[in-house]
Amino acid sequence: MSEQGQVLDVDVSVIGGGIAGLWLLARLRQQGYQAVLLESRALGAGQTRYAQGIIHGGTKYALRGKLTDSSRAVARMPQIWRDCLHGAGEVDLGQAQVLSQHQYLWSSASLTSRLAGFFASRVMQSRTRGLNRAQWPVLFQDRAFRGQVYRLDEPVLDTLSVIRALAGPHRAALVHVDPASLKFDRESGALRFTTVDGANWQLRAQRIVLGAGEGNAGLLQQAGYTQPAMQRRALKMVMLRGGLPQPLFAHCVDANVNPRLTITSHRDAHGEVVWYLGGQLAEQGVGRSDSDQIVAARKELQALLPWVDFSRSEWATLDIDRAEPRQPGGKRPDNVFVHEQDAIVTIWPTKLALAPVLTAAVLDALESGGIAPRGQSPLPPWPQPPYAVLPWQEEERWKSGH
What we know:
The protein is of the alpha/beta class and 402 residues long.
């Protein structure tokens, strides 16, 4: 093999093996595009594995009593994903694990929290309904609880199982590359890289899709572009395990745009229940030390669930950067982002649930640009990337907990 490497012509190359990139790859190959996906670490290793797995339908963005642009953008997502989970959608997620078919909204005894739950249920009444006490999760049936509970028909998925379901049928189109080797050749339009086993390649594609999340900034710079600009919005999530009463998938609602606290449940490497905490706790925890954030999480849980004993729980934190297109004032984007320049398409999904919308926008852009499928041929036997490990299953993360 020459130093310049073997040459392969494809229709579309995708960089980044998170849910957005893999959903796009699956749809491209379904439609007959010769498409490949390059990943430098592991499938799902970026933002995907830190997600809580919630397939939002917009209720959490309607907590002020009116539909927002964000709530409209994701309103159809639960049904689209459910169709895929049942094998009747645009991709087959039949092998993905559903952690819970629905979540709960709970309001504390405060008036503002009760009103927030009421407005959310009225605005999004097609997916939210109040429950009588007998229908509440066992955790909330304690006599000490004085709030209200609503059921939210939005599923929660195990994100790694979604990654496996998307990647499995298209393993031959996945390439594990040396992260330092990726180079854009502006003159030839080729994408040069070295696989982890040392083979050099030139990939000539009609379109290169950058779907690497936080890595998009470096890829754009390496390709010689200054736009689109990226922003990072940080979170400081909290995990706890040990002595937990049961799995819980719930949001404590208040009068703010975001839930006061969001709890999803997962399993560590030993099968023990882990609560994963987000919401305002994670937003406001940015800048706190790990120990201070754990103290804040303890206080919040004691305030909201005072009848639960967390004295035997073990705690840990996760610092996360959400990569997005830059917005005025660093605000959260309302919808997916697709930006074309020359042969490069830069994408950010904004939320995991919006992967189908993002893919549809890219397919529309390809069609508008005259990029039609040219048929598929066998791909080389190159090394394929491994799957990521979920953070709560990495035992070393728990060693610094308190």
